[in-house]
Amino acid sequence: MRSPLSEPTAAPLHSGACRPRRVASVTVGQTPRSDVVPDILAQLPMALEVQEFGALDGLSEREIAALAPRAGETSLVTRLRSGADVVVSRQRVARRMEEICRGIDPARFDLLIVLTTGLFREFESDCPTVNAQRAIDATIAALAAAGQTVGVIYPLRRQVDENAAYSVPGCALRLTHAAGGDAAALLRAADDLRGCDLVVLNSVAYVETDRLAVATRMGRPVILARRVVAGAIRLLLDPGGTRRSMPPAAARPPAGTNGAAAAERMHTLTPRERQVMSLVAEGLSNKAIARQLTISPRTVEIHRARMMDKMGAGSVGALVRMVLVAQHPGL
């Protein structure tokens, strides 16, 4: 496994140095993830310098085969450097991911991206973090809490059974499966989810053509995991060059009515308020946000209150929905 400590030191986020932001991307599989990372970068308005770390990097075929799920373990599907897919134990690969995340130096990286779904845990790091599964969970919870029926598509059939207990209080989710790139399976999954108000493709491996296939079949909005990740990165790293002054309350666009109104409100946030909004939207506590941004919990409270007021959001769920409609027109 490559050590994140072997590279030269880079200036931290708050240094003001004129350089591309440095991002550590951690994946379950092997690097480089040329099937995911370039597409996410293409969705961002800023230049990023990405260093990738994979939980399976440096392992032999035999060592990777030994990570196959055992009885009582749950599964993840990921990609090897060769382009082949492999199913591994969620529990054991998570420990390898955790080791990598602990070694990411916040003096060298502006952001840590946990670029995998299916790991329902926090990863200890002093770096501001985008956790793909955490972002997806917040998305599903916010949309389901709004009274919408949410369908979720996983890559593997066994993941449907393993995640059957996953629920949002007061809401019934519908789960099915389809491998990315398998047109027939995606259409079958879309038929399984008929009647849902929207669908989440719960893997960063799904691509835009997969999203379009399901959306066209169902005539409903479909959320792509990598788009959610790109949106979270944008909020944390966008320097806020398009920020506009806050208009008087009477002149503000109605809160949460449409994507344009939500986007207009987001333009009034300071860079720090945008960072706080992203982490609040992922469900982090004030204490956890303070740790990631290296500020006090009290300062987080102040930024959070100002941000919620500017956004006109009465709850975290309402905030997440506003962020989603701003970043995903048509929801």
Distance between the termini: 41 Å
- Biggest sheet strand order reads 2-1-5-6
The DSSP helix count reads 13
Main sheet: strands, sense, barrel: 4 strands, parallel
Write the layout of secondary structure elements.
Blueprint: E1 21-27, H1 37-42, E2 48-54, H2 61-65, E3 75-79, E4 85-89, H3 90-102, E5 111-114, E6 129-131, H4 132-145, E7 150-154, H5 157-162, E8 174-177, H6 183-192, E9 198-201, H7 208-218, E10 222-224, H8 225-237, H9 259-266, H10 271-281, H11 286-293, H12 297-311, H13 316-327
Parallel strand pairs: 1-2, 1-5, 5-6, 7-8, 7-9, 9-10
Antiparallel strand pairs: 3-4
Helix pairs in contact: 4-8, 4-13, 6-7, 8-10, 9-13, 10-12, 11-12
Overview of this structure, please?
By secondary structure, this protein is α/β, with parallel strands linked by helices. The protein folds into three domains: 13-132, no CATH class; 135-227, PrpR receptor domain-like (Rossmann fold); 239-327, Arc Repressor Mutant, subunit A (Orthogonal Bundle). The chain has helices at residues 37-42, 61-65, 90-102, 132-145, 157-162, 183-192, 208-218, 225-237, 259-266, 271-281, 286-293, 297-311, 316-327, and strands at residues 21-27, 48-54, 75-79, 85-89, 111-114, 129-131, 150-154, 174-177, 198-201, 222-224. Strands 2-1-5-6 form a four-stranded parallel sheet, with helices on both faces. Strands 8-7-9-10 form a four-stranded parallel sheet, with helices on both faces. Strands 3-4 form a two-stranded antiparallel sheet. Helix 1 (37-42) links the parallel strand 1 (21-27) and strand 2. It starts with 20 loop residues before the first strand and ends with a helix. Residues 1-17 and 241-256 have low confidence and may be disordered.
